[in-house]
Structure formats: structure tokens, C-alpha cells
Amino acid sequence: MNELELKYGCNPNQKPSKIFMENGEELPITVLNGKPGYINFLDAFNSWQLVSELKAATGLPSAASFKHVSPAGAAVATELSETLKKIYFVDDLELSPIASAYAKARGADRMSSYGDWVALSDVCDKETAILLKREVSDGIIAPGYTDEALEILKSKRKGTYNVVQIDPGYTPAAVEHKQVYGITFEQGRNELKIDEEMLSNIVTENKTFTDDAKRDLMIALITLKYTQSNSVCYAKDGQAIGVGAGQQSRIHCTRLAGNKADIWYLRQNPKVLALPFREDIRRPDRDNTIDVYISDDYEDVLADGIWEQFFTEKPEPLTREEKKEWLSTFKGVSLGSDAFFPFGDNIERAKRSGVEFIAQPGGSIRDDNVIETCNKYNMTMAFTGIRLFHH
User: How far apart are CA 144 and CA 15, in angstroms?
Assistant: First the structure.
């Protein structure tokens, strides 16, 4: 099969729609269940490239959670702490390595991952399928599925869940094309290999990258390679914990991603972990309520007469002072940027979210100011010399 008809394009009025191979070759994918759409396939092909490159760079099973052609999360398989298992709602599940990677990818920003497209670097197993079945998701792409996993996924969403298998040996053409306004654009594929060699040009006084930092910077940079620009990514513990995508200003990327990283860390606060949820509250509603609880609007939104909808008793607020104190313990975070930081204000904002390690292209006329700001906080920063714009 060298073409596949789709229901419609980005929007229902955009017809006809299909994916196809211009050279007449076979499509490298097989739809095993469901009927994926135009945006589904954009997410599928971008996310598959991301997890494939993560696996190649780290040697670890990798997963991504995509929404609207940018990753909400990406991660490699490492052992989850009991706290992370709880905030990701997987403390009741048996997790294989690839299931752990997906739990982390989805858990980084659960609100953004709601209704996601999933990508796995490895064969989808039963444990991952069980985890996925109970989450709201549009579809999955993987190099294969065990028989048990496929049966579980086929039963999801009343039998309509999108399951796509891709040929891991597929190699795309070196030159790619797309059309905008009837005009064809051509460029060489971005086949840049991201590895630890990119971190060799350390420009700060502190020259130390820990092994964990090197791994996390690889995750951040590879995630950025498939994130709509401008983009910044915070990473820790083998996963992206905050992605700022598609912003026109670099500082807005840094703030957006930093705010997401802060929420990820605040969810681990003992007061949040102890919230007395009613047993009938669904996971998405818990996610929304936790975000409200963490916000400064908590007491206004969950006023008397409203909190009873979610909790068995009204929880004490997490005060601004308590949040500030908790975030002051946030350490060891890595930060990647798809283009240079033009001002030191990005570093100042990153410091507030525990950033100690940075990788960015460099090349700003204010590089000296950015380096000086890193030195003020004893951060380690490498200039990669490589921009990672993605559109």
C-alpha cells in the first residue's frame, strides 16, 4: 500500500486528505486498528523519530506523549520512585521498562497529555497496554505489539483506538518537501545526530556535567528537535519535565517550560500527595484539581460549597511561602534551548526551577552576559553550535 485515504485534513472542511509515497514505494506503516487522521499521523511520525533517536542516544527504551505536533512529554526507562509512581497514578500497576518510560512521558504534564498520541521505541507489551487503556489517548505508534497488548488496545475506546505499527528499518529520503499556499518547499532532512560530543564546548567556569545531566541534556535536545519552535525544555530524572513550545519570545519559552517544571515538582509536595480526594473522582479531574490547588487561586476556586465535589474534607491551602520554600529545594535540573539565549534573564528564570546544567547553541551578541549569569549561579553550560528549529 503506497497511499492511505484519511477522513479529512487538519479540519473537517479540508478535503480530500491522504498520506502517500510520491515515489510509489510502500508506506512504512500498517494500521492495526482504528482510523488515524491527518493530525494523528503528523504526531505519529514526529514522535516516532523522537523516541527512535532517544533510544539510539541513550540505549534505553523511550516513549513520548504528543499533542498538536509537539511533545507534552518524553522519557527514557529508569526506575520510578514511589512518589513519582503516585503522582503519575501508576502505583497500582506492574511496570515493564517501556511502560515506565511512557508513565514518565505522560506524567510530566498530565493536563497537556490528555488525549495524546503515544510513541514507543520498543515493542508495546501488556504492561504498557494496561496503563494506556485507562488513560484518555488518541492513538499509538510502535515497531510492534505483543498479542496480549494488541487485544487490550483494540478494546479501548469502544474498539476505535488508533494502533499503528511502523517498520523500524524505514529510512526516509535525504531531501524532503512540503507545500504552503500551493508553493513547494524543499530542504535536506534534519539528520543531525545528537550525542554527548555536543556537550564538549563548556563555556562556563564550572566544567562539570554529571552522568545524569548528560543523559537529561540529550533528552532535552532531542525533544527540542521535534518541538515547534521557539522552544525550551527542562529535564530531570530521565524525562522532560517542562516543554515550552511555539513561543515567539525566548523568555516566554523559558517561563512556560519553567512553570510546567515547577508544577511537576510541586505535585510531589507532601501536602499535595496527601490531598483527601473522594474515591469517585476520576484521574483527569484529579489532575485539574491538583493544578487548581497548586495555583494562587485555590481559596477562591475551591470556596465553601465547592470543595465537597472533590474532597472528603477541605484541605489546608499550600501557601505561597510553602511553595517558595518547596521550590527552593528543586535541584539538578537540565535545560536545553533550540536557539541561543539572547539575554541573561532566561538564566535567572531557569535558576528558579532548579536548573544547574544548560546546553544551547550560543552565538548571541550577549553571550558574555549569559555566561556571566551562569557563573553567578555556578551553572555548567555548553555551547552546542547547533540550532534545532522545527516547523
Answer: 31
Helix 283-294 to helix 250-266 angle, to the nearest 10 degrees? 110
- Among 68, 86, 154, 390, the active-site one is 68
Spans of all domains in the chain = 3-171, 193-266+327-383, 280-314
Pick left, alpha or beta for residue 310 (phi over 0 → left; psi -120 to 50 → alpha; otherwise beta): alpha
Q: Is 230 one of the annotated active-site residues of the chain?
A: yes
Q: Are 223 and 235 in contact (CB under 8 A)?
A: yes
Q: What are φ and ψ of residue 165, in 5° steps? A: -110, 130
How big is the chain by its Cα radius of gyration, in Å? 21
Contact 126, 150 (CB under 8 A): no
Say what the pLDDT of residue 305 is.
62
| The CATH classification of domain 3-171, taken from the options 3.40.140.20, 3.20.20.370, 3.40.640.10, 3.30.390.30 | 3.40.140.20
pTM above 0.85, yes or no: yes
Catalytic residue among 46, 162, 230, 269: 230
Residue 69: alpha-carbon gap to chain centroid: 11
Spatial contact of 312 and 339, defined as CB atoms under 8 Å apart: no
CATH 3.50.50.60 fits 193-266+327-383, yes or no: no
Count of beta carbons in the 10 Å neighbourhood of residue 302: 20
Per residue in 109-121, pLDDT (tens digit) is 999 999 999 999 9
Q: Is 252 a catalytic residue?
A: no
33, 40, 67, 225: which is the annotated catalytic residue? 67
